[in-house]
Every structure is written in structure tokens, then in C-alpha cells.
What we know:
This protein has about 400 residues and is α+β, with helices and mostly antiparallel strands. Helix content is about 40%, strand content about 20%. The protein contains 11 helices and 12 strands. Strands 1, 2, 3, 4, 5, 6, 7 and 12 form an 8-stranded mixed beta sheet that branches. Strands 9-10-8-11 form a 4-stranded antiparallel beta sheet. The protein is globular. The relative contact order is 0.17. It binds alpha-D-galactopyranose.
Amino acid sequence: MISGGNIRNIFAQIFGREAALVARAPGRINLIGEHTDYNGGFVLPAAIEFEIKMAARPAEGSIVRAWSENYNEAFEFDAATALTPPAEPRWYSYLMAVVDQFQQRGFTTPGFEVVIHGDIPPGAGLSSSAAFEVCAAVLLNELCQAGLSLKNLALLAQAAEHSPFVGVRCGIMDQFASALGVENSALQIDCYTLETEAFPFNSAMASIVIINSNKSRELRNSEFNTRRKECEEGLAMLDALCGGNYETLRHVPAEVFARHQHCLPPKIAQRVRHNLTENQRVKDFVEALRRSRWQVAGDLLYQSHASLRDDYEVSCPELDTIVDLAANTGLAYGCRMTGGGFGGCAVALVPPENVAEFSARLAPEYKARTGISPDIYATKAAAGARLER
Length: 389
Ligand code: GLA
């Protein structure tokens, strides 16, 4: 958690005057529903206590002066001109991407000064980039007097991620979780209708434990966009095969897939199967949460991981090791990789009284097997993005 007082002090030191407003946006952990969001499916993330803060003040003219406390670096650009992406993606690419989205929607961005400081581990699959975009969107909403809802700010942030400034064709989960997260709750998102529902998460019964494999991943360079394309191909093939007109993979009935799967190229069939089974697991998980059936919920986490490893092929040896070790401790309800994959974090549900022993056993065993020290944190489901005056 970044202290509001601290970021105001940094602003005063850098710009020699008081900040007028502070925006914050959290990272997220996804409990279940992975790689389903861009296929119109179901996801169940929660906002977490790691976050990004931006302290800002409007300035005369149209120059944006930004200071990144994490990178110890300044950058400025003119918000009145058409923006072009930097040659290499940098921290300020995300800020420019969001300003560009406001411009594209016809809003005039005034000049402003801003200090940016975050504690979300980058490249860990905890949505540091979505939090950056959502935080910038909340800030610009105020600076431009745009009056957009948090939902629309999340959609704008997603458009920023898709734009040439970033270039990842992500789904909506990360930006929605960061913008609309509810304290002590998991947020179910129907990624087709964009409806959300918060489910109270009883932290007295289960702690959310994040295990960072410290194997960093770069979505842009990973196969994320390829997976998305494979799913689109799978949908088009199923439509052609059965004369259906399914809008997304979420609309494909299980029996239709069962009948036609042997006609699909094996990899495409795997990607589709993961989506259909994962959507069902989200529904089952929510039902288990409602009934406080933690062991059922935990088993669904293990099943989700196996599907991501074998059918969707987005895990990696480090994440598989964490999940195996978590199961071997016998101290967790369940564990799975979380986020885009290819490195980053796993999430475990652990009875609160077991958390200390779980971490103490997992960390050295993971280090012994992989040579990497993990970071392990128990977190609470936090509230979504806000503006503080
Ligand atoms: C990344 C994307 C999300 C989602 C996850 C996988 O975090 O940004 O939209 O697709 O991967 O579930």
C-alpha cells in the first residue's frame, strides 16, 4: 500500500507545490476464470492491497510533466498534439496511451504535473499495467471533467492497452477488477454482458496467498495474442462445422463441442476445451463460496491449473512446481497459476491458521527445486480505484 501522505510529499519535492488530487488503483489477483475474459466468459478476480498512486495538479498550457518514483525518471509531452508511441514501450507509454484515449473521445486534456508511485511487482501477473491505466484514467477523468463512470474508465483503460502504445489484446478482467473491486469480496464478471457481482469472501475461513515465482513474464512477448487468435479460429471453425452462429466461445454448448472436437486441429480443440471447462469451474467455484465449501473451491483451483497447463499451455515449470509443492504441503485448499501465465504468480487458498507454516515450507522447497527465491504474501480483497482530494 502506498501512503497518500508520502506521494504528496514527493510531489511537493519534485514540483515545489502542493498536489491538488491523488488517484489510486489496485492490482488484482484472479481466483478463477483464466483466459476466458476475451472469449466472453466468466472470471472471478479480486482487487489486492498492492496499488499505484498518482498525485497531480493542473498546470497552465498543455504540457504534461510526469515523474516516476519507481524509475526515478522524468518525462514530458504536449497533450495538445497528436501523440505517437515511443519507439520502445516505457512506463510513460501507458500515460500517453490513456491521454490519447481521452483525446480520441473528444476531451481536451489540460497540462498537468504528476508523480507516479506503485508497489505492484511488475511482470508478476498482478496487473500493474492495468492498475497504471485505470489510475491514469481516474485522474484524467477529473482533470478533463469528463464525467465517465468507473465502468467506462475501465473500458477506456482496456482500449489504451490494446492501442499501439502497449499492443496487448487483453480482455476486460484486469481493468474491471482494478476499477470496480469491492473490499473483502471477489468480483464475478460476466465478460459478455459486462455485468459484475461482488461475492463476500470470508477471510476468516480462507486467506488469499500470492506466491510470486519471480520468473518474470512479458505478456507482449508471450503467446498471449496467439492464444486469443487460436480461440477466434476455434470459434469460426465450430461455426462453420455446425452452421451455428455463436457470438463467443462462451456461447458454444458443451455437447456441440463434444460432437465436433475431433474435426478441429488438436491445439485449437484444446484451447476451446479449456474455455468451456473453465467457465463451468467459475460457476462451481462461486457456488462453493456461497456454501463455504472451501475444499470444493480448492479442488477447482487445482483443476483450473491442470487445464491451463495441459490444454491452454500457458503455465511454466516454475508455476507447476509451486502448485505441486502447495498440494504436497497438505496445508492449502488449492492453488493455481493466476493471470496471463508464462511466469508471474500463483494463488493459493489457505486456512488462515496454516498460512505461516505453508509459506515457511513452500519457500525453501521452491528455492531448492528452481534456484529462485519466491515472494509470498497473504492479501485481502481490496476496494477498487478512487480519487482522493
Ligand atoms: C491477462 C489479461 C487479462 C486476462 C488474463 C488471463 O492478465 O490482461 O485480460 O486475459 O491475462 O486470464
